[in-house]
Amino acid sequence: MPFNFPADAHQKHICVIGDIMLDHYIFGTADRISPEAPVPVVDIKSERYTLGGAGNVLENLNAFGGSASLISVCGIDDASTIAEQALGDLPLAFFKLVKDGKRRTTVKTRVMASKHQLIRLDSEDKHDINEQVQQQILDQLAANISNIDAVILSDYRKGVLTAGLVKEVIKLCRQHGVLSIVDSKVQDLSMYAGADLVKPNKKEASLASGINIVDDDTLLRACKHINNVTQSKYIVVTLSEDGLAIFYEGKLSKMPTRSLAVSDVTGAGDTVVSALTFGLVNGLTIEQASDFANHAAAIVVAKVGSATATIAEINESFS
């Protein structure tokens, strides 16, 4: 059945805290080999910047029509200016990019020729942000927490979400009855103890639990381990072509994938965590929210690049 959300769904406010990035695409043609080295010469035709990382989570929330905001860290560079302009073009409740002169804004540059990626160039710093920057993030969250329904911690291991900052964010969320949702690439998930929901993918769940997930039994044991470490109410594991798994109240259930065609899985995890959060703050059960996320991911993986899905697109998929 199509998903019907309440009339005030657009008023539910979800704040994303984590590592923002810029995805930089250089498009061109490659018709010859360089005389200087055995590499193709790319004749550049166009360039494009899109928001990545926590920014892609934000884009997904915006596509659902909810109220969204972002708190992140950037450098003092040209890339930060581009990121601020992109954020300013979105209908956000607010955004805050804390400027840190000791780090670069993360940029991932992909050189594309005839729809093929020739190379990816990463410009980034991964060291932990200092206490002053952490405090600015906390101050921004505290100033807005009374108007926030959920916080998504989008952790790409670029140094924004330190153990100390995460502890204080989750504490603040619990004090104000705000849902805390985790999508993290860290292996030690104990730093996220107390969060309401943790969403690893299959590989991340294997690394976090030390259990090689090969069947439902190992999947169950991995979920139990993560649950013991985080004490989270929900554990949702994305399983790529096998759909997703939900661990709740000591029981494991699985949902098969809704995807009929896969063009690109880039950003699918961001779509899932966004959809899960949007569903939960709008009154869906964990099973219903997971089904919504499954349908959203099916739309996104059929597109190329970091894409998003609207509720209208998701509901159209039923027909």
From TrEMBL:
**Source organism superkingdom:** Bacteria
**Entries under Gene3D superfamilies matching the protein:** 3.40.1190.20
Record has Protein transport as a keyword: no
Q: Does the keyword Kinase apply?
A: yes
Q: What GO cellular component is one of the record's annotations?
A: cytosol
* Keyword list, A-Z: Kinase, Transferase
Which InterPro entries does the UniProt entry name for this protein? Answer: Carboh/pur_kinase_PfkB_CS, PfkB_dom, RfaE_dom_I, Ribokinase-like
Task: Domain (Carbohydrate kinase PfkB): give its ranges.
Answer: 12-308
Family matches, as CDD domains? RfaE_like
In its UniProt record, a GO molecular function of this protein is:
heptose 7-phosphate kinase activity
Q: Which residues form a coiled coil?
A: none
Record-linked PANTHER family: BIFUNCTIONAL PROTEIN HLDE
Q: What is this protein called?
A: D-glycero-beta-D-manno-heptose-7-phosphate kinase
- Native source species: Mucilaginibacter myungsuensis
Q: Which gene encodes it?
A: rfaE1
